[in-house]
Amino acid sequence: MSQSSDPSESSTPSSPKDSISPKVLEVCNVSKSFPGVKALKGVSMHLHAGEVLAVIGENGAGKSTLMKILAGVQEHDSGEVLVDGEPVRFKGVEDALAKGIALIHQELNLADNLDVASNIFLGREPLKFGLIDTSAMREASNEYLQKVGLKVNPAQTVSELTIGHQQMVEIAKALSINARVLIMDEPTSSLSQHETEQLFVVIKDLAAKGVAIVYISHRLGEVRELANRVTVLRDGENAGDIVREDINHDRMVKMMVGRDVSQYYALEPRDTGEVALKVDNLVTPQHPKHTLNFEIKAGEIVGVAGLVGAGRTEMLQTVFGITPALSGSIFIGDQQASIQSPRQAIHHGLALVPEDRKQQGLILEMAVRENMSLASLKRDQKKGFLNRSKEQEISRQMVADMKVKTPSEMQEVQYLSGGNQQKVVLGKWLAMHPKVLFLDEPTRGIDVGAKQDIYKLMEKLAEEGVAILFVSSEMEEIIGMSDRALVMHEGCLTGELKREELNEEAVMQLATGATLPSH
Amino acid sequence: MKKIYGILSIFIVVCVLTAMMSPSFATPFNIERLILRTSLYGIISIGVAFVIITSGIDLSIGSVICLIGCGLPWLLIKMSLPLPVGLLIVIVASVLIGLLHGLLTTKLKLQPFVVTLCGLLMYRGITRGFTGDQTQGFGKLFESLRWIGTGRIAIPGVPLETFGIPVPFFLLLFVTIVASIFLNRTIYGRYLLALGRNEQAARYSGINTDLMIILAYVICAGLAGVGGVLFILDTNSAQPADFGNFYELYAIAAAVLGGCSLRGGQGTIIGVVIGAALMQVLRNMITLVDWIPTHIEYAVIGAVILVGVMADEVVKRVAAARRAAASKG
After folding, report:
1. Domain B27-318: which CATH number of 1.10.3470, 1.10.287, 3.30.1490, 3.30.70
2. Quick one: which of A125, A444, B34, B252 is 20 to 30 A from A294 by CA?
3. Given CB atoms, is B135 within the 8 Å cutoff of chain A?
C-alpha cells in the first residue's frame, strides 16, 4: 500500500527470467460450467517458482472458480492443469495439497477453539504411543511460525489471536506441508495497515525462497507493490496480462472493467449544512477510559481511520445503540437523544451498515426483497400486517437505483456476490431515509465496479444532505473520499485532519498514537 | 405451498397404506378419534413451532399440560372455585410460565434447552405436590364445559351417532388460521422468521428481538395450556405422575416434520398440523394393524421422522446447488 518505496529497491521482487525458472503451475484453456452459468471459458495462466502473480478481476470474473480448481475443491470440465509440466486432475483438496498447492481463503479456515500448533498440524498430528504428542507438535510449529515471523506461543488458542495473526497461522500451516504454490484470496481484507505490511514482508521472503504465490486482491495498490505479473480475468475469460514495468492503476482497472475508468474518486469540495450529529464526552463500554467528542454536519463525508483495535467499530456501535454508552450525550441535530438500542437509533434517523455484512447486516437465507424491507417493516405496516406492495416498491427501486445484480428479487441474498450483498444492506437503510449514515468498512471484499457504485452513492447521499461517517482501513479510501478524517488509536480520538491535511503520513502518526503539533 | 407437498404426500401415502392394512381405519368412529387427537396435538405443536422458529426449544410442554390438566379440575372441584376464576387462573399460569421461559432466555441468556428442561421437571413436581398425587377429573360435573372437549358437531345429512366433527377441531382451525396469518402476513411473523435465522442481524436492523422471543415462549406455553384444558376435558381423568408425559416430543416431532428446522427461521403452520396428523395416523396404524407389534410404536415413529427429515435435506441441497450456480461464477 505504501507508495514511498522505489521500485528499483532490492526489497521489491524482480521478475524471474522465463528461461531459468521452471513453470511450477500452468493452466491451459480451462473451462468450467455450473447449471445455468459458464464460469470459466478457456482461461489460461502460468506461474513460475518464486513469482508473485496477481490475479485480478471483478466479482463474477471467474477468479474464485479458477482458484477452487487449482486447490482441488472443484474439477475443471475441459482444458489442462499442469504441475511441473505434468497434467493433473485434482479430485479433492488432498490431491492438491499432495502436489504442494495450498489455498488460503478469505474467510480463514482455522479451528479457533484449538491452539496454534493443533491448527498447523491438523490431521497430521505427531503421535506417541497412539496419542497426540503435544510437546513435539508445539516444538515443530515454532519452525514454521518463525518462517512467517509470527511471535506467538504455539499453545495459545487461535480465537484469542488477531485476524492478522490468524492469517499468519494459516500461512505457517501451508508451509508445514511444504506448499510450493500459495494461493491467497483477498488476504488483507481484514488486516490493518501494519499487519498488511508484515504480510508483504513474509510474501516477499517466501518468494525469494522459491515459493510461487498467486495473489488475488481488489486492492490494486497492493498489486502494484507485490506483483511480478498480473493476469486479468473478465467474464470468465482472459482479459490480458501485465508485466511488472507496465503495472499501473488505470491500466488494471481498464482491463478489469473493459471500459475507461478515469477517476476512482471524485474530489470536489462539498457544501455542508447544520450539525447533524454531535457526540459529547461519550464513553464506550469497551474503552471506558476515554471520552469521544466529535460532530458531523449534514452533507459531510467524514472518514474514521485507525489501526485494527483502535475502537472505531465500537464507537459506531455505541452511537448506534448496540452497546450503549456508559455516559456522555448524543445530539441529533440540536436535540439530545437517548440511544439505548438500535431501535431508538433508527427512530432518531441513524443507520448503520455493519462491518460483517453476513453476520450483522443480512438474513442470508431470506430474499433480496425481504432483506431490503427489514428495517422499514414497522414504518410501512398496515395495522400490524405486512405492506407487501410497499415492500415490492422499495425493493424494485433499490435494485434498479443501485444496480444490484440478481436474477430476481426473490433470490436468497446468500447467493449474491459480496458487492451486491453490500448494496442490499445499503438499500435496506436507504429505504429509511436516514439523516446520519454510518458505514463500517463499506467496500471490504468488494470488486472495483461495485466499489465505484458505492462511492458514487455516498456522494449522492451527501449531496442530498445526509451526514456520512465511514470507518475504513483502506488509506486510499480515507484520503479519497473524506471531507474530513477522524483518527482513532486504542479507543481514543487522537486527531482530526481536514482535506488539505490528509495524507498517509499524518494519518499514520495519529493512528499510532502520536499527536500532531498543534495547527 | 411447495413446502408442504412433501409432508402432505407422505401423509396421504400413510393413510392409504393403513386403510389397506386394516379395515378398522376408515370407519367413522376411528376417523372421529383421529380428528380429535390431531386437533389436540396440533394445537400444542403449533405452539412449539413458534419457539422452534426462533431457534429455541420448549421441553416443558408435557409438564405444562399436566399442570393445567390436573390443575383445572383441582381448582374447580377440590378448591370449589367458580368456573371463570378457575379458567382465568390456568390462563394466567400458562402465560406466566411462557414469560418465565422467555425472560430467562433473553435477559439472562440461559439456554432454552436448560430452562425448559427444568420446567419439565418442576411443573410436574409442583402438580404432584398440590394434588397429593391424586388422580384428577370432573366426574359427572361440568357437563357443559366438558362438551368443548367431548362434543361433536353434526355434518348436515349425517346422523350424529354415526359421525360428528369433534369440537376441538374448530379450535384447531381457529388457531391454525390465526397462527398462519400471524406468521406469514404480519410484521411480527417476519420478525420471528428473521431473528430465527440471524438474531444479530435482526437486532441490528432495529427489531426488538427480546420482546419477540418472549412472545414466542408465551404463545407456546399458552397453547400448551389450551391443550392441557382440552386433554383433561377429553379424558376426564388425569394422573399427575404421567399426564401429558412425552407430549413435547410429539409436538416437536410434528413441528420438525412440518418443516421447522431446529436451526430456526423456517416453518409453516399448515405443515405442522399435517405433521401432527401424520403422527396420529402412524400411532393409529401401529395399534390397528395386527402384525405390527404395538410395543415398537416409538421405533416406528422415530424412523419415520428421521426418513422425513432426511428426504427434506436432500431436496433442499439439490435446489440450493442449482440456485448457487445460477448466481455466482
Report:
1. 1.10.3470
2. A444
3. no
